[in-house]
UniProtKB/TrEMBL annotation:
Residues 15-211 form the Calcineurin-like phosphoesterase domain. Gene3D superfamilies: 3.60.21.10. GO terms for molecular function: hydrolase activity. InterPro entries: Calcineurin-like_PHP, Metallo-depent_PP-like, UPF0046_metallophosphoest. This is Metallo-dependent phosphatase. Residues 333-343 have a biased composition (Basic and acidic residues). Residues 267-366 are annotated as: Disordered. The lineage of its organism: Eukaryota, Fungi, Dikarya, Ascomycota, Pezizomycotina. Residues 294-332 have a biased composition (Basic residues).
């Protein structure tokens, strides 16, 4: 078996088919390597509804099928169903354990319950790539439905997303992106948006708000470390499948000419984190791609690059893009130190290090910069250090049902197809097609 040298990672195109909010519908699915369902498989989570949907998913021809629940899949949330189930199923009470077992015991479905898995694509005819996915069913509280949280719990919930997640699947959308309701209101979660800034995954797949279906490519602003959670801009997607027989498709590969600006995988090659939940054993002889010898930035190098300054070379947005540096600093100063404006005490006009300005002598440049990072009110330095290449995330609302209940005639959307370059796992046999070396 031929192995690729770990010092020169190899990438292959991997096709994702994304759906959400099918609500008992079983649409025809285009071909792909990975199927993602971002929740609301049913209307009320009954056993018969779930049996129909799970049977449809199991018949789908994908090497990996990743599924999370949604707020309508109420039997999959045992505490909620125990308290409120009689309101929905007073004539025919359902067995939550039997409903959950349909997904947990499926031999072809990876059912994620606020957890992380490593996914190895090992088919000889597939791309033989590997990625880490985090999946969660939770959404902000609205009405009486399953898997909901109040605003005061939001940050704690989304802090669970590990930094090494390449793909994040959540039922809820992040605030301000693919989250607009029929009335034009943004109904996403701000804490989730902040978590995406911290993690900066390649893909963020969601649903929940049917009218928000679509794609936005978000560029994160990383050159103002004292002002986290900002965005440099975002670009809307023109759906080539709207009103045509074409796929609803986006190409994020190098070959496609508009590659996702997210290069952390090529530099650090997937550092492990403590909150990893292991998936099934990888193919025999397989391992995660090793870091290249040039990728191990010291904290000094990583911190030294993160200066509190604007980027003079920032590209202007295209005609389909709104370059809003999206300051999103809506919090009252003093109440949320993470989103407040920079003050004179944050940046010294006399060019002295931050620690010296407060009357202490810094041991070196690194300690001064680390002091700046430590003042980011909970932002882990590891979210910044050495991860400067993770600049862009593609956010996808893949709702199949296009209208919410009571919002007019029923409308259905196509699945969204995404092509993405992913690293080949070490030990994968050589294929001649769809190969590219690591980005510079």
């Amino acid at each position: 078996m031929t192995s690729y040298p770990s010092t020169r990672p190899v990438y292959r195109k991997t096709r994702f088919v994304c759906i959400s909010d099918t609500h008992n519908q079983t649409p025809k699915l285009p071909a792909g390597d990975v199927l993602i369902h971002a929740g609301d498989l049913t209307n009320q989570g009954s056993l018969s509804e779930l049996q129909k949907t799970v049977a449809w998913l199991e018949k789908a021809n994908f090497e990996a099928k990743i599924v999370v629940a949604g707020n309508h899949d109420i039997t999959l949330d045992s505490p909620f169903y125990q308290e409120h189930g009689a309101y929905f199923h007073n004539q025919q009470p359902q067995d939550p354990l039997a409903c959950q077992e349909l997904l947990k015991s499926s031999p072809t479905i990876t059912y994620l319950q606020h957890e992380t898995r490593d996914i190895y694509l090992s088919s000889p005819t597939g791309p033989q790539t590997v990625f880490t996915v985090f999946g969660s069913p939770y959404s902000p509280a609205q009405g009486s439905w399953g898997f909901q949280y109040n605003k005061d719990r939001a940050a704690t919930i989304w802090d669970a997303i590990p930094l090494n997640a390449s793909v994040v699947v959540t039922h809820a959308p992040p605030f301000g992106h693919c989250d607009y309701s029929a009335g034009g209101r943004s109904k996403g979660c701000e804490a989730l948006r902040k978590a995406l800034w911290r993690v900066r995954p390649m893909l963020s797949v969601c649903g929940h708000t049917h009218e928000g279906r679509g794609i936005e490519r978000v560029t994160w602003k990383m050159d103002l470390p004292l002002c986290p959670y900002l965005e440099d801009g975002y670009t809307f997607w023109d759906d080539p499948g709207a009103g045509t027989n074409k796929l609803s498709y986006i190409d994020l590969t190098e070959k496609g000419g508009k590659k996702l600006d997210n290069y952390y995988e090529s530099k650090h090659q997937r550092q492990l984190t403590p909150n990893r939940v292991s998936f099934s054993p990888p193919p025999e002889g397989a391992s995660l791609p090793s870091p290249t010898k040039h990728s191990m930035h010291s904290h000094k190098t990583a911190l030294g690059r993160a200066r509190c300054r604007s980027n003079p070379n920032r590209k202007k947005s295209s005609s389909r893009s709104r370059s809003r540096s999206r300051s999103r600093r809506r919090a009252v100063p003093g109440k949320d130190a993470r989103t407040r404006d920079i003050t004179a005490t944050d940046v010294n006009t006399d060019s002295k290090p931050a620690t010296e300005a407060r009357g202490r002598q810094p041991s070196n440049e690194v300690s001064a910069l680390e002091e700046w990072y430590s003042r980011l009110d909970g932002l882990n330095i590891s979210a910044m250090a050495g991860r400067e290449g993770k600049k862009e995330t593609c956010i996808i609302n893949a709702a199949i049902c296009g209208t919410s209940w009571g919002q007019g005639p029923r409308k259905f959307n196509k699945p969204i197809v995404v092509d993405l370059d992913l690293p080949v796992w070490d030990g994968a046999p050589t294929l001649n097609s769809n190969l590219s070396t690591a980005p510079p």
